[in-house]
Amino acid sequence: MTTVDSPSDTRPDPLGVLVRDLQQLRLDAGAVSYGEIAQRIVARRMSEGASEAASRVARSTVYDAFQPGRRRLNPGLVREIVLALGLDAAQADEWHERCVLTRQAAPSPTVAPAAPAPDVHPDDAAATPPAPLVPPQALRRALIAVLLVACLGLNLFGTTLVLRLEIPLFLDTIGTALAAFALGPWHGVAVGVATGLFGMVSSTPETVVFSAVSVVAALLWGYGLRRYARTPLRFLALAGTVAVACSVVAAPLNLALYGGASTNASSAFLPVTTSLGLIASVFAVNLGASLVDKGLTAVLALVAARWLAPLQLTGPPPALLRTPTPGGRVSA
């Protein structure tokens, strides 16, 4: 017996077309795994102020959204998926609207249900906060380049200020700290190394070796802010750690190049009877200046980084850079 499909069976399935296009978008973005998409959604939700519990989304939830034969699809989840795949907010809104229109255009069932079924997946029960105004990718890259140059300028300005006013500090890593806070540790390393290379050309060649101090500071600031310093008290502890680490690196370099004398700290060392005592005295003098210098540097850089945090130039900002809301939550 030959079966004849009803006219409704031959109509194109708008939801099926949408799911097929969504899968093609995932492939065009580099065949991003469903687990990676879920992680990106969680990171975006947390950056917008949602708690860790409310931000969770299961990999299976994302996987289901890409499967053909679906009878319903959450427009909010579709919007988050396309954002995770690299589209901007305007394009994501278009996908959201398309999903809503697809639901409206879907053929009515033979027997109308008493009430429309809820379109909220259990894993997506928490409402998603409005997305921040993140600049497009090309603009972000340009802003990062401008910020790196500005950070280099901050370092050079601080160095010049110390030399002109004979301040017993360093002030040559404010830009390094800002880059590490706002962009990440390796951006801070780039600014620190660039500062040393510029100093080698503009002043004395041996100053480039002090780039090692900036590298240590940038790595500790960048990783420390993201993995440890989630509270003001921990941030102060991080600043002290950076000061000690920089002194450990700088003291031997200072001793080898300048015999322990420094234009940034007093050369009146502690009583010295051995070479080891000389190293300890140089370290002590350097540490005294470094504690004040790195504390001031960290605070100034943190204030500037918090101002830049809403741009999310390299991803969701660390916890300490997010602005508290009246409800006690934090947002970028």
From TrEMBL:
Keywords: Membrane, Transmembrane, Transmembrane helix. It comes from the Bacteria. The chain crosses the membrane at residues 142-165, 177-201, 207-223, 235-256, 268-289. Residues 110-131 are annotated as: Disordered. This is ECF transporter S component. It comes from Microbacterium aurantiacum.
